Inverse folding.
């Protein structure tokens, strides 16, 4: 029965394309919720069940929240819900701490090199996207407080660290692991990377090209997470990319 969970995980992971490219009827949302509940009950794997609920909440909040969208609540709120579900079902704080496993001690020189390559590729990808699309980043720029250099630096640091931490916990710390439990590493990396890329359709970089670039970037971050057994390396790598995004928005 537990294997019934995996198809539902794939559907929920890729729920965002339906939201982005099609008009999603409310009934579809209801059926997704019911399917997740049935699969979660059948598998008795409460951390996987919670991951499904979290991802569905994330995509639904983005779609149905409208003007209620406020960074970083779209990530923090579903993550908090997942923690509550795990604690309520399993009463296992160690499992919650496992979601945030950094595993710094396992870093090797090759991991640092892969992190550096990923940073360089992410910067190159962002520059390529800016050059090709010439996107209007005014809406994102309006979210930045222009008061002083010190405040801008503080804003860049806060955004980069919090955004990188939350996104890595959600996609590499939770979704990637949950998918591996029900499939294999290759499928888990592809599905989680697709989910990450599509979730950035309205972000920076955005659009179809942004989805492709973000998805490829997510594959590299997933490889880092799998090689190191934790999310420390992906978080640090992600921070550099988010700093570049902040600068691009500031001067875009």
């Amino acid at each position: 029965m537990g294997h019934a969970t995996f198809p539902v995980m794939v559907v929920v992971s890729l729920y965002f394309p339906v939201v982005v490219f099609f008009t999603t009827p409310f009934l579809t949302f209801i059926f997704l919720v019911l399917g997740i509940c049935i699969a979660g009950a059948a598998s008795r794997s409460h951390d996987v069940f919670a991951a499904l609920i979290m991802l569905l909440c994330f995509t639904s909040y983005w779609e149905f929240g409208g003007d209620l969208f406020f960074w970083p609540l779209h990530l923090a709120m579903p993550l908090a819900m997942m923690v509550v579900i795990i604690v309520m079902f399993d009463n296992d704080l160690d499992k919650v701490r496992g979601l945030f496993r950094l595993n710094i001690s396992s870093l090797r020189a090759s991991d640092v090199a892969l992190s550096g390559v990923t940073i360089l590729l992410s910067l190159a990808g962002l520059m390529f996207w800016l050059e090709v699309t010439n996107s209007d980043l005014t809406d994102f720029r309006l979210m930045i407080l222009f008061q002083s250099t010190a405040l801008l630096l503080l804003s860049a640091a806060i955004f980069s660290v919090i955004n990188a931490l939350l996104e890595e916990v959600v996609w590499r710390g939770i979704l990637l692991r949950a998918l591996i439990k029900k499939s294999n590493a290759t499928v888990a990396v592809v599905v989680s990377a697709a989910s990450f890329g599509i979730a950035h359709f309205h972000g920076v970089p955005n659009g179809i090209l942004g989805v492709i670039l973000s998805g490829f970037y997510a594959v590299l971050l997933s490889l880092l997470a799998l090689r190191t057994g934790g999310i420390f390396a992906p978080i640090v790598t992600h921070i550099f990319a988010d700093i570049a995004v902040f600068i691009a928005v500031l001067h875009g």
Observations:
- The longest helix spans residues 149-182.
- The chain has twelve helices and no strands.
- The two ends are 51 Å apart (CA to CA).
